[in-house]
Each structure stands twice: as C-alpha cells, then as structure tokens.
C-alpha cells in the first residue's frame, strides 16, 4: 500500500475498526452473541457474519450455495436476500467458530491489502448487488465506513461504547455528509433557493449547509448560512443512528433541536437515512 498513500487512511481505518470488532466479540458468551442489534433482524452474530461474508467476497471466495428460510421477516427484496445469505449460513455457528473465522479473514484481507498494487482509480468490485463497478479508492472508503458502522452496531448491543472519534468515524462523517443533498432536496423537497444547516456536536463535530438551487438540486459545503430555512442540531451518535437507519426520528426527538421551519425539519428527519 505504500505505493499509493492516498489509500492508506482507508486501510488503516478499516483495520482499526475490524480489529476492534474482533476484540469486542472474542470474550463473548454464547448468549451474548445472540443480543439484538439495531439492524432489523440481526444479532451480534449476524452482524459479524455480514462483515466476514463481505470481506470473503472481496477475497474472491465463492458465495455460499444456501437456501434461505421463508419466514425471515426482514428479508423483503433482492438486496436484503443477497445480504442475508452470508448471514444465515453462519447463524448456527458457535462463538469460537465465529471468532476463528473472523480472525482468519482479517489476516487474509490484511495480506491482500498489503500486496495491493493497483492505482486508486483502478476498477474494483462494488460489494452491493446490482451496483456498477467502482474505483479501488471508493471501494476501500466504503469498506472503512461499513465496518465502522457495524462496529458501532455491536458496541450499542453490548453496551460497550467507544471509537466514536476513531479514523473510521471520520470516514463515516464524510460518507454520510455526501448523502445530505439528496436527503434535503429530494427526500424532504426543501424549497428552491433555500438553505438548511446541520450542526453536529460531540466526538465528531461539524457544521454543514445544504443549499438547494433554483433547479431543485442540492449541494453541501462547510460555509455557514445567514438565513437558513431550518437548522437541525444534534449529537454525533444520534446523527449516525439516524443517517444509517438505525433509529426512527420520533425515538430520538429529545436529542434533536429543530429551529425554523418545523414541518421541513420533520420531513428532513424522516428522509435522513442514506444507507440501504
């Protein structure tokens, strides 16, 4: 990776988060593996299975040949069905089996990434079904993002908070902020010519303004707006949970301050999730 230093921050963030997951789950009892997470239908075991499965696919391992049960309520479309295969095939694995496979997968992927010699703009596989190929740089950014988000899913389930300001958190901030123009302009249909301010506090602190032009297109920048139609103020953990679809707005209403157009603010919060 030293040949392409622009990729190294994403590799480092991925490594820190996935090793943190390994440290979190290594001492778990069998019962703790079954704790529910904020991902609908997924336990701690299931989240770890998902992480392992995606990394194995990027290693070139064949996808499991597996038929899903017909009664999995959270599998509603082809996307969720695709993702569930790697999860359900490991659903009856023991804790030691899970930790052993995770550790081995980390070693294999770490070796693969150390030996990566392609350019950042080289074509790479997208991990989501039905998506076009992306650049290697984008793939690594999205892996750092995804693994950090799932680390936080596990931490909340185990009541073991941490790493809210880690390298992966900063990658997550950038990915989630990318989705704000679509949330505000398309999802909430903010008025043309308006500006919406997001003021986020806590371990990762930032202020972003989403501007909607006269064509109804949104853009985001770090400049303050003198007359925003609405300002949303919230803490980083709540921002992550909302933007990743882990919680409904009404469940965290006391942690979000809406100033200005309250109706638009509520519409933005309803459209806030930017992940599949």
Describe this structure in words.
The chain is α+β, with helices and mostly antiparallel strands. It is 46% helix and 12% strand. The chain contains ten helices and seven strands. The protein has a five-stranded mixed beta sheet. The protein starts with 7 loop residues before the first helix and ends in a 6-residue tail after the last helix. InterPro entries: DinB/YfiT-like (IPR034660), Maleyloyr_isom (IPR017517), MDMPI_C-term_domain (IPR010872), MDMPI_metal-binding (IPR024344). Residues 171-264 form the MDMPI C-terminal domain. This is Mycothiol-dependent maleylpyruvate isomerase metal-binding domain-containing protein. It comes from Streptomyces oceani.
Describe the protein's topology.
Elements: H1 8-25, H2 30-33, H3 44-58, H4 78-88, H5 95-114, E1 123-124, E2 134-135, H6 136-158, H7 167-178, H8 180-187, E3 195-201, E4 206-212, E5 218-221, E6 230-235, H9 236-243, E7 256-260, H10 262-270
Parallel strand pairs: 3-6
Antiparallel strand pairs: 1-2, 3-4, 4-5, 6-7
Helix pairs in contact: 1-5, 1-6, 1-7, 3-4, 3-5, 3-6, 6-7
Organism: Streptomyces oceani
GO molecular function, one term: metal ion binding
Domain MDMPI C-terminal: 171-264
């Amino acid at each position: 990776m030293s040949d392409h230093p622009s990729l190294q921050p994403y590799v480092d963030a991925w490594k820190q988060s996935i090793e943190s997951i390994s440290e979190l789950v290594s001492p778990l009892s069998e019962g703790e593996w079954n704790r529910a997470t904020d991902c609908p239908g997924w336990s701690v075991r299931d989240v770890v299975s998902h992480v392992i499965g995606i990394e194995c696919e990027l290693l070139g391992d064949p996808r499991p040949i597996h038929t899903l049960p017909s009664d999995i309520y959270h599998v509603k479309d082809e996307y969720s069905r695709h993702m569930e295969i790697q999860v359900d095939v490991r659903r009856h694995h023991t804790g030691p089996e899970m930790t052993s496979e995770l550790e081995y997968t980390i070693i294999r992927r770490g070796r693969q990434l150390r030996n990566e010699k392609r350019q950042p703009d080289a074509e790479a596989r997208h991990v989501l079904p039905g998506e076009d190929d992306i650049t290697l740089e984008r793939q690594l950014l999205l892996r750092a993002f995804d693994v950090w988000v799932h680390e936080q899913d596990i931490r909340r389930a185990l009541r073991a908070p941490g790493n809210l300001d880690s390298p992966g958190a900063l990658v997550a901030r950038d990915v989630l902020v990318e989705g704000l123009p679509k949330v505000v302009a398309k999802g909430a249909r903010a008025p043309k010519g308006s500006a919406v301010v997001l003021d986020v506090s806590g371990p990762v602190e930032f202020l972003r303004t989403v501007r909607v032009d006269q064509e109804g297109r949104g853009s985001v920048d770090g400049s303050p707006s003198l007359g925003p139609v609405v300002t949303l103020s919230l803490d980083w953990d709540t921002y992550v949970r909302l933007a990743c679809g882990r919680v409904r707005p009404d469940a965290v209403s006391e942690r979000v301050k809406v100033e200005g157009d309250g109706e638009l603010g509520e519409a933005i919060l309803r459209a806030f999730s930017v992940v599949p």
